Each structure stands twice: as structure tokens, then as C-alpha cells.
Amino acid sequence: MPIIAKRTLVQFWESGHGDAEQPLKTWHALAKASSWSHPKEIKEKFSTVSFLANNRVVFNISGNKYRLVVKVEYELKTVYIRFIGSHAEYDKIDASIV
After folding, report:
1. Mean pLDDT of 54-67
2. Which of 25, 46, 58, 95 could disulfide-link to 50, CB 3.0 to 4.6 Å?
3. What integer is the mean pLDDT of 1-28?
């Protein structure tokens, strides 16, 4: 699946969150190699994932230290990165509309 935009992940780990680099690279590789048509397919690969309104999906990164929010367009087979940050930062956003 195309992932828009990987640079968001790179900027995150380069901005003082180096511990997230390998987990984000792993997530990116798995997501890119996937072809999700339904949330169930995501859950099969990422058991701790959470699903929100508006096709938002929340992944736990780095042992649940960070949250990654993406929007999945199932028909287009495309993933849009909407947010990456700590739990405290995540708590300040409305993940269903970012």
C-alpha cells in the first residue's frame, strides 16, 4: 500500500525520538507490503491496533510509548499518516479528525 508521507515518520525520529526509528521502519515495511481491504486485515497483523471514526487507525509504537494515527482509504489502498507523538500529545488531539 502506498503510505503518504513517510517523511513525517523520518522527521519524528530525527527530532529527538530515535528510539522510535526501528519500530517505525518496521511498521512502514509491514504496512507498505500489505493490501488492506478491511479493518480485520489490519487487526490480524497488528493485534493492539485501535479503530476510530473516519477510517482512522491507531497503532502503538515503541512498546506503546508513542501513538501513530493513520487514515486508511480501503478502496484506494492508501494509508495517510495523520499523527505521530507521545501519549500525552495524543491525548490533546481528536484522533478521529486529524
Report:
1. 95
2. 58
3. 96
Can you give the residue ranges of every domain in the chain?
Answer: 3-90
Residues 6+ apart with CB under 8 A from 85: 12, 66, 67
Residue 21, C-alpha cell as written in the block: 526509528
C-alpha span between 91 and 28 (Å, rounded): 23
Enumerate residues 6+ apart whose C-beta is below 8 A from 81: 3, 4, 5, 6, 8, 9, 68, 69, 70
Identify the CATH number of the domain defined by range 3-90.
3.30.2310
Dist. CA 81–CA 98, nearest whole Å: 10
